[in-house]
Amino acid sequence: MSADRFFTALHRKFTNNLAHLNALDAAVGDGDHGSTMVRGLAKAVAADEGKRAKAFMRASGGASGTLFGLILIAIETYLDSAADLTSGLATACDRICDLGEVKVGDKSMIDALAPAVTAMKSGDLAAAISAARAGRDSTQPLVARRGRAQYVEQGGKGHIDPGAVSVVIFLETLGELD
User: Fold this and answer.
1) Using CA of residue 137, residue 141, residue 145, residue 148, what is the dihedral sign?
2) Please, which pLDDT band fits residue 153 given cuts at 50, 70 and 90?
3) Is the separation of the CB atoms in 135 and 112 below 8 Å?
4) pTM of the prediction?
5) Distance (Å, rounded) from C-alpha 96 to C-alpha 74?
């Protein structure tokens, strides 16, 4: 599988889920998560081999562009050069936790990514996807301790974190093409 196929499929999925992702983000943030992801992925699809994740980061901008870009760099490196996916995702997870000063339970993308990385240590992508889905769903009753959601009423309690949804879409797309 090539990174080109992955980014093309990912762009299509985010385009199809644009309204849903924006609605999720409107409940806990500024309502542009889907639009931001689609903008970044459109540039990634048009970029040269090995430069797709960085094109995403530049086009999507902001802190979230950098944080999601770290995951995409790990996946792109795995697809283009057969680098170790588990190690790449673990490094991305550690960097996101460090840069975002976030941990599991803060109601963020890490609630999906961290359990996926743990499950990936067995080498089973399907188990990682399942763990990410459970992590995503676990964000619904949480009160945000980081990010914009912490400033909305009840810290977004009752709403799934859109960043966790995006992490699941990344991994599901990878699993479908693998």
Assistant:
1) positive
2) confident
3) yes
4) 0.96
5) 12
Please give the pLDDT value at position 155: 86
CA distances (Å), 8 to each of 24, 95, 101, 142, in order? Answer: 23, 26, 31, 33
Chain segment 159-173, per-residue pLDDT in tens: 999 999 999 999 999
User: And the tokens for 102?
Assistant: 């976030």
Give the DSSP per-residue string, 126-165: HHHHHHHHHHHHHTTTPPPSSSGGGGSGGGGTTS--HHHH
By the 8 A CB rule, do 69 and 53 touch?
yes
Dihedral sign computed on CA atoms, order 148, 15, 50, 135? positive
* CB 62, CB 78: distance < 8 Å: no
Question: Token pair for residue 155?
Answer: 């810290």
Three-state SS for 114?
A: helix
Q: What's the rounded Cα separation, in Å, for the pair 116 and 97? A: 14
Nearest partner of 107 among 127, 75, 79, 135, judged by Cα? 135
* Non-local CB neighbours of 61 within 8 Å, separated by 6+ positions: 36, 40
- At 38-93, the pLDDT tens digits run 999 999 999 999 999 999 999 998 889 999 999 999 999 999 999 999 999 999 99
